[in-house]
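Repro:
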Amino acid sequence: MSYVPERRHRRTIRLPGYDYASSGAYFVTLVAKDRECLFENDANRAAVERAWLALPATNTHVKLDTYVVMPNHFHGILWLDDPRRGGSRTAPTDASKPRKPLGRLIGAFKTTSTKAINLLRDSPGVPVWQRNYYERVIRNEDELNRVRQYILDNPANWDEDVENPATKA
């Protein structure tokens, strides 16, 4: 596809050449469509939480860490592990089974949570999430601890949060 300067082009925030299926920790943020406070509703918040917690059940290479469902966005840390390696006391798992990279995992999470929320509000096909998501590769333990603390502090900081529509009034 050729570049057309008149068209609006989305910038990627992904690291060029990085393998987003590789083992490690990833910090992700997803924002509700139009920054609407959809997750203030307990049932919607629970649907998002259930979809997040279900990821490891169908993706054995996924482990979840700290997360929070905010009124109009979501923060979480997810770990990808290489299940094909096998530990000192375990046999390697089937190497032919494809591992979902981060983008496909987030896509599955968004799809599952969207379907559940739309079922609750009887609005099939209505978008729940903005396109794309923010991600950051967590590179060391200090950064991991800072991100965990940021996530844990997020609810207490909601009144001043830039994602809070009330701060823009």
